[in-house]
Amino acid sequence: MSVTGTGGNYLTSVDSLQIGQSVLKDLTAILVDERPPKAPEGLLLMADIGWDILGNYHLLIDRYSQEMAIFSYDTAQDCPDIGTLLKNPGPFIPLVSFDGESPQLNQATVLLDGHKVDMQLNTSANRSIIQQWVARKMGISRRMLAQDDEIRVGAGEVLLGHRHHFNTLQLGSHTLHDITLDVVPDAEFNILGMDVLKHFNVLINPMKGRLWLEDFKPPPDYVEEKALPWSPTHDRLSITHASEEKQAPPTQDQGTKPAPRPSGNP
Fold first, then answer.
1. How far apart are CA 127 and CA 109, in angstroms?
2. pLDDT for 237-257, tens place per residue?
């Protein structure tokens, strides 16, 4: 199941997967397409590391070094709390199961303009998604969304929606101001992606369902690395392919025929 709904998938076997110094053997993976993947010329083969792996390790995303660490942490009695790996994280944010039954503890409750919204953490998604019915409960009408930029979200199936401005998003003791999220009518669940998480150093204990965040303040010489230009796994999740420009109302010379919308990517 993805944000677009439930569908069929194809499985393949992976003999070994090396992540840093760790090597995993005899894995089963889901193919993005029907055939084994091939990397385009000049680009690396892309893979999405799922909860079946990450759920067994601690995860640290350091924005200053632009590096990620997947590691095990000794929980002996004399060991300090794992949250102390960050200098000033504040209290941890509890993570719960999406449906109350799944072992995946990856859903956090945020305050979006003062409204509680449950969102799934997804470090592979470059945009965050809000279901339209959730936005409607917050008082965001279709007429209001019609004033926003239209977007297309590629997530296995193409989803249409609008990029809407929110005043505040609060995660635990951390608050972001003046942010935009994608409001999508047909999304199966809400996603908390890297457009939000990039503002923090992130530490996750998936076994106990705990999330720590530390505010990231880019130094003056900080240059953020650009994402790779091609990634089918991002296409399966929540990358925005195109933001269609609003069309100007027709003039008298143009008559009532609507102006054509762009059909390709910008």
1. 17
2. 444 433 334 444 444 444 434
